[in-house]
Amino acid sequence: MLLDTASLYFRAYFGVPDSLRSPDGIPVNAVRGLLDFTARLVADHSPDHLVACTDADWRPQWRVDLIPSYKTHRLAPSPPAGPGEEEVPDTLGPQIPVIGQVLDAVGIARVGAPGYEADDVIGTLTARARGPVDVVTGDRDLFQLVDDARQVRVLYPVKGMGTLQSTDDALLREKYGVDGSRYADMAVLRGDPSDGLPGVAGIGEKTAAKLLAAYGSLDGVLAAAEDPSSGLTPTQRRRLREGAGYLAVAPRVVRVADDVPLPDVDPVLPRGPRDPMTLEELSDRWGLGGSLQRLLAVLAG
């Protein structure tokens, strides 16, 4: 089980009341929410291995070099965040290091890689996996990893963490008209304003899916644009040609990396805390109470 950690703690922050506070009044809703999410995931799905994947670089320069608009709308406009830092709600920022400290003390593997996003860490660990993989994320970009043949699915929260959509190839075909192997191609054509990806003008999700169904892949669609005998409309042909510069670089930006150099970690699900003394101190300092105890009970069980 691979956790898209930032995606989940953002959901916890916005889904769990900020009335959950430390003894000295600091909000800990993201910390406690993530602990509760993790406890529920372990209880419901019983993974043998669990890795909390992190953004060592939420906006890698190599992606920005290819598409300068990549995630620009998420940049913090002013201090306290420095240049190039992601805008994070004031009361969430202080909770992020606490999350890392607690996961480390519990013994849950936590992995990031300089120059890469959590998506790339997840893509690499998925590529290396020898058995079934559950990716837990609120980011649809990771639907591209879904692969029924390899038993890779995405558990996607549709309402808090109480309801998870188990996303397989059949569901993707039903909802988007493509399976996991073609989801990234569709995302390239469609674009994604939330990530600063313009897409091809006039080609939305449904049209992208139809083109991929007709021509098999993004390369097939681009070949059809240059083939006078293909069934593309003149407008589609023109727009694909006009978008050639974007289409030359977008696939590398949209597709998650699967060859990231990662540090060695032990992904085996812990049965007890790695550092009980530190964990007790963190629990007392931040008032983690029942959330931490529920996680520890599930791990021990």
Furnish the topology, listing elements before pairings.
Blueprint: E1 2-4, H1 5-15, H2 29-45, E2 51-53, H3 61-66, H4 95-106, E3 109-111, H5 118-128, E4 133-136, E5 152-159, E6 163-167, H6 169-176, H7 180-190, H8 205-215, H9 218-225, H10 234-242, H11 244-254, H12 276-286, H13 289-300
Parallel strand pairs: 1-2, 1-4, 2-3, 4-5
Antiparallel strand pairs: 5-6
Helix pairs in contact: 1-2, 2-4, 2-13, 4-12, 7-8, 7-11, 8-9
Provide a descriptive summary of the structure in words.
With 301 residues, the chain is of the alpha/beta class. Helix content is 46%, strand content 9%. It has helices at 5-15, 29-45, 61-66, 95-106, 118-128, 169-176, 180-190, 205-215, 218-225, 234-242, 244-254, 276-286, 289-300; strands at residues 2-4, 51-53, 109-111, 133-136, 152-159, 163-167. Strands 3-2-1-4-5-6 form a 6-stranded mixed β-sheet, sandwiched between helices. A hairpin with a 3-residue loop joins strand 5 and strand 6 (163-167). The longest helix is centred in the N-terminal third of the chain and has 17 residues, at 29-45.
Helix/sheet category: alpha/beta
Strand % is 5-15%
Task: Return the string of H and E elements.
Answer: EHHEHHEHEEEHHHHHHHH
Main sheet attributes: strand count, strand direction, barrel closure? 6 strands, mixed
Radius of gyration: 21 Å
First-last Cα distance: 18 Å
Strand order of the largest sheet: 3-2-1-4-5-6
Average pLDDT for all residues: 94
> Number of DSSP strands?
6
Number of helices: 13
Quick summary:
Helix 2 runs parallel beside helix 13 and helix 7 crosses helix 11. The protein is α/β, with parallel strands linked by helices and 301 residues long.
